[in-house]
Amino acid sequence: MGQLNLHEGRALLADGSAITLENFPEICNSWSSMYRGDYNGRPVCVKIWRGEGLLLPSRKRTVFLRKLLQEVLAWQAMSHPNIGTVHGVLFTLYKLPSVVTPYYPNGDINAYVSNNSCTDLRALV
């Protein structure tokens, strides 16, 4: 897992490679923002968590990061055609935690099913 630094629309990884981010998040809610980006010619999604207690060192931040890393490690160990991969956990502007995954143009499963009402749900399991 690498270090990520945002600078004028580019996220630089510790190994020197870069993720180019769009200027505005594609999805934004009260706890996170999701940006579309490009990593070595592949579209990626960068989900940046934010919220109370995540900016400054605190017990709440430590507990959140420990749980996040544990979940991402479990996610990375999975291999199934219906489970997306994860590239890793990075830290963005203000050291906020981010997860980098492939970008899926149809969104998550809920968005896909909403937009494709004739989909056989059994085929998605």
UniProtKB/TrEMBL annotation:
Domain of life: Eukaryota
Alphabetized SUPFAM superfamilies for the sequence: Protein kinase-like (PK-like)
InterPro entries: Kinase-like_dom_sf
Name of the protein in its database record: Protein kinase domain-containing protein
Organism listed in the record: Lentinula aciculospora
